[in-house]
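Archive record
______________

***
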Amino acid sequence: MTRSSKKGPYVDERVIAKVAGKKPLETGVIKTWSRACVIAPEMVGFTFGVHNGKTHIEVLVSEDMVGHRLGEFSLTRKFVKHGGKMQKELEQKKKEGEIAAAQAAKAPAAESKK
């Protein structure tokens, strides 16, 4: 359920106190464990270290993030690729093909400039 509109969005007072009266460029990373805190317009431009359960992940707040929660930008689960030896070989061949295609595209462009 969403929060009642008469209460307003939940913005942690400690986070706002750390931001109040400071400039975004001069302030370093602001560490916080408050993942449920809603991003307010005053936070735009600041870098927050949002705790994901193990480490603090740096999140640079932009205007598009206002209204979302800090925890949305600090993932708590790490995706592990499946596959193994065969999958690695296939990915390596694909990468080599992309590099060769990029070099082939560069070569005619470089000749036409001469």
Notes: The chain is about 30% helix and 10% strand. The longest strand covers residues 47-51. The beta strands are 30-32, 47-51, 56-60.
